[in-house]
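P.,

For your records, the input lines for the assembly:
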Amino acid sequence: MKNPNPMTLLLLGLLLWAGQALSEPLTFTITQGVEGALPIAVVPFGWSGGGERPPYGVASIIGADLARSGRFKVLDEADMLSRPHTATDVDVLDWKALGMENLVVGEIRPHGQGGYMIRFQLMDVLRGEQLTGYSVPTTARDLRATAHRIADIIYQTLTGERGAFDTRIAYITSVRDAQGKDSVSLQVADADGYNAQTIVSSADPLMSPAWSPDGRRLAYVSFERGRPAIYVQEVLTGRREKVSAYEGINGAPAWSPDGRSLALTLSKDGNPDIYVLELAGRRLRPLTRHYAIDTEPAWSPDGRSIVFTSDRGGGPQIYQVPAAGGEARRLTFEGSYNSRATFSPDGRSLALVTRVGKDYRIGLLDLQDRVLGVLTDGSLDESPSFAPNGSMIIYATKTDGQGELAAVSVDGRVHQRLGQRVGDVREPDWSPFTEQD
Amino acid sequence: MKKTLVMSVLLMAVALLVSGCGGKATKDDVGAPVVEGTGAEYGESGGAQTAGAREGGAWSGSQLDDPNSPLSTRTLYFDFDQSVVRSEYRDIVLAHAEYLAANPDVSVTLEGHTDEQGSREYNIALGERRARAVEDMMTAHGAPAFQISTISYGEERPAVLGSDEGAWSRNRRVEIVY
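Structure tokens returned:
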């Protein structure tokens, strides 16, 4: 959160030069909310300058973030009885009358060259006191990100958990034209669906995007050379390296928590097995060796073990193996089809794809008591990915034959959908926490 | 009758020549990437042979273009989550194996595909297993392995869009691409 320095401008220039096009935003709709959500009002922030107003309504971005979490019930602006901008102007009776427990007020003024200073205060209405408040400098370009960070501060103050609003999602989009030709792209957007940018596009399949633990790089599979290969690309600069292009499958890249290795699927030795590729030395180590299909590896947050999908027992099920190598043991026993597992950030559960009757849904397996709960109710749900604070799972679903993204809270109570107008959207991967400047 | 036959043979020849020029006809049709050197050779020789057709109705073009040959079947369908080549395709796979053995300069790519059910990387693995099942059957019947390559697209390149068994059954397939 600083003023643009020459480096930032240079990087922005590189971004534009790399041909990163802004795409249609995904729009979140909450399809099922929670009872008992915390009532909160976010009053539109005041503007105390002449000249040009900020291009976005900061308060509405904050309010939308909080509502999206399912933890808050955000008061409609039209229902507000007064619109104070500072804590001293707040008449708590106005907010008590509306049943509000918390209130956010703020003010924006010009700051530096084309920049802004946002001052906000979070108030406890019942006690009539301020819980937190900051003055934050920002720019027009960073305004949305700053609003997300303010939402993170409010979320953390009121829930005790770290907010994940100032994060990003990567996903694949695909459009098929009248001649049957596909245009596939790998896009990156803010967690609320805005600022979507294409970072790779191809006429051939792109698959399995995976954020590096530092949030600066994406590993993915591209068929652009006619055969699948795994690339690692710096998100900011677009610079990339081909890290795996063996004969056969090069798939399912998964970062080790230390960011030094990728677990991946190769079939160079006859059938799909899991390997670990150390990126710096390009050293490749086989992890599984079985005549069945072994694929879709995912690391535990402590880096000690890897879960993967294998059909060695007949149908696809989830297995776990020590990351250093060793015997695999089966983790899922319920149902005929369990695949594509991913660890929750606390390492206590796995989100996965599970077949229920004829439907494929997102399941949550508690690793302690081994209970498998089903979180979604679609028929073709897949590719679950946890928010870095573990509160939500984003996944891909199909509605009327079209792929789109959806999210569900880990308790299964809050459901939301991210609509996009054209084509298929799939394979979401939620970024780690953004490093603060 | 004679006229239409000559006409259709000529049209076929033109079509093959055009595809020969592009050198990538079959592959472009399915939007697949091109493995250099596979499609091109065949397209050209096929075109030249077809141009030599005589009247009388006997097929004298490339065997691959004879609509009555088992070689004209280039797509084999599979059951759900299965990679076993169905018995109905046995003669077709054997015909391709014989053709490859008899034509050492011809190469073929077996493209494995799945329907959209289940997870994507698992489907890549399943598509590969289907392609390899066809490859194994071909090599077991005399087709030299060096003439065959396999690739899996999993569910990434459906032949038919749609989320019902009708579409899925047509997407679970191996395409034989010369």
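Two observations worth noting. Strands of chain B lie at 75-77, 108-113, 148-154, 173-177. Residues 139 and 145 of chain B are 6 Å apart (CA to CA).

Regards
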